[in-house]
Amino acid sequence: xxxxxxxxxxxxxxxxxxxxxxxxxxxxxxxxxxxxxxxxxxxxxxxxxxxxxxxxxxxxxxxxxxxxxxxxxxxxxxxxxxxxxxxxxxxxxxxxxxxxxxxxxxxxxxxxxxxxxxxxxxxxxxxxxxxxxxxxxxxxxxxxxxxxxxxxxxxxxxxxxxxxxxxxxxxxxxxxxxxxxxxxxxxxxxxxxxxxxxxxxxxxxxxxxxxxxxxxxxxxxxxxxxxxxxxxxxxxxxxxxxxxxxxxxxxxxxxxxxxxxxxxxxxxxxxxxxxxxxxxxxxxxxxxxxxxxxxxxxxxxxxxxxxxxxxxxxxxxxxxxxxxxxxxxxxxxxxxxxxxxxxxxxxxxxxxxxxxxxxxxxxxxxxxxxxxxxxxxxxxxxxxxxxxxxxxxxxxxxxxxxxxxxxxxxxxxxxxxxxxxxxxxxxxxxxxxxxxxxxxxxxxxxxxxxxxxxxxxxxxxxxxxxxxxxxxxxxxxxxxxxxxxxxxxxxxxxxxxxxxxxxxxxxxxxxxxxxxxxxxxxxxxxxxxxxxxxxxxx
Length: 538
Known about the structure:
The protein is an alpha/beta fold. The chain folds into 3 domains: 2-23 and 148-239, 3-Layer(bba) Sandwich (Glucose Oxidase, domain 1), CATH 3.50.30.10; 36-142, PtsI, HPr-binding domain (Enzyme I, Chain A, domain 2), CATH 1.10.274; 264-536, Alpha-Beta Barrel (TIM Barrel), CATH 3.20.20. The protein contains 20 helices and 16 strands. Strands 1-8-7-3-4-5-6-2 form an 8-stranded mixed beta sheet. An 8-stranded parallel β-barrel has the order 9-10-11-12-13-14-15-16, surrounded by 4 helices. The longest helix has 30 residues, at 36-65. The chain is globular and about 80 Å long.
């Protein structure tokens, strides 16, 4: 038995097999082969497996977001059956006596360049599709699992670190816990762990040889126990059972109002990254969705999500919430959420750079597509829109002008949409907090993004683990800014919520209620514990 000490970013206990997540190396070497027919067979077997894997993803996407959400995957499936593509791979294997990986990579590059050079926009878009199916085939030929997790049983994911684009691809039903060597308490892995209500540790110096062995994650002590002895495992299984029973007791608070003894009501909403989080939202009895991180729709694919794909996703969430408020944050791309197909330049300090609303205002065609989808989906539920990274009044006026253009276009085209959609902004820069009295009359609500507000106020990069000891979310400057925003919003007759991670800090719940915060939007697992605190307040 080996006990490794790290830092806990979400409490709880997990017991299960360890799966070391390896970054998939898709570099291809040219190798000479002697048996052409055997290489043909390898290629054909890989091609068929890729088609079968895609069918599973298509079925899953269709069930979660509708047919439109599966459309891109269906295109990829058809391309794997394209005779020209197949003939090219087979010809390269046969004529050059090379391995299938090299033939697939070469064909992918050739076809991608061919499509990219075409005049037709639709055909140009196929360049990325060809790259995607070629990478998928190479993964199969190299023996990689589609999402890096082999086997059917849930596992403890152990990794160097996980970026947003990697976490969004994980099958969450297979994850018991996250354990990483790097990362910070404010990383996307940490946020995902809190959303999924699973324990997570960082700063664990693991070894690849741990793959496949039994492990225990203790989110209370920050310990990672590898190959526990019988006595230790029995002890933790008892603790895990106690934890499950405690969660069951909290369920008694389901369908109860989040209101203090004196009658002060707090709206208690949930943060989500996509449709797959809905089950947890409903299970934990959230009163609405205060933050739908729409950027995960962009992170999940190799091309911009279409208006129809977005419409189906937003519509599905609105319908499932059955009239409860669903606040969709427009795409917050940039900073730590980088996407290749956006073609963003390298920046020395991306957190202060070209991101979020700045991209939307600079590339209005992308912004308009998202707005059209949201206004259309609002016909099916209580949807509101929230704009991130606002720093000035002029940005709000530019947003409003684009919104009016979108509405007029929908009217002219006879497309049904909802006119009276609430529109709010995120207060996550000190600039927005300081001029919140000027911004409030222009919007319907504020939502304070405490993650960025804290990092900008304290001049601390929240992704830098070395600065964790200096990152004080309880800093008086941060709390004063929150109080200023709440007061200014109420003077203007609008409401203010908190959707950052600080909203789930139960040591501050009473403080926020006394400040006059109207809404907290937190990871689903925090809904019932916070409700309990509020209901016990005078």
